[in-house]
Design brief:
Layout lengths: L1 E10 L3 E8 L20 E8 L5 H4 L5 E4 L2 E14 L2 E10 L5 H16 L5
Antiparallel strand pairs: 1-2, 3-6, 4-5, 5-6
Length: about 120
């Protein structure tokens, strides 16, 4: 199941590269944590790279998802950019990503299977 479209890039005027956040609906062995946080929960993170490092494109782009300290986080917005000699220090707000609730995931999987088989329940 596609949870969200993170970003896209146009390649050579005829191709489009798209990054998605997805969840495998056939796997239900996880703990639903979203219910534990009532308010929008976010943290501040930072990365330090050389100013000409190619990883800036993959590690510090808005909308990218990263695995840090056992959790998945999505970069939401930049908060600070510092240049210290040849090092670039980027600070940004990240929010944790949670899987879709088990009941919702099962319902979506069942609905998807019905559509593939073109079944209707009367």
């Amino acid at each position: 199941m596609v949870i969200g479209i993170e970003r896209f890039e146009v390649l050579y005027n005829t191709k489009l590269k798209v990054w998605y956040t997805c969840q495998n609906l056939s796997e239900t062995d996880y703990v639903t944590r979203k219910k534990a946080y009532q308010e929008p929960f976010q943290l501040e993170a930072e990365v330090k790279l050389k100013y000409d490092d190619e990883r800036i494109r993959t590690r510090a782009q808005l909308g990218t998802v990263h695995f840090m300290e056992g959790e998945f986080y999505k970069i939401m917005e930049y908060t600070d950019i510092e240049l210290n000699g040849t090092d670039l220090l980027l600070s940004f707000i990240v929010k944790p990503l949670y899987p879709v609730d088990r009941k919702e995931a099962k319902a979506k999987l069942l609905d998807s299977r019905k559509r593939k088989l073109q079944l209707e329940v009367f």
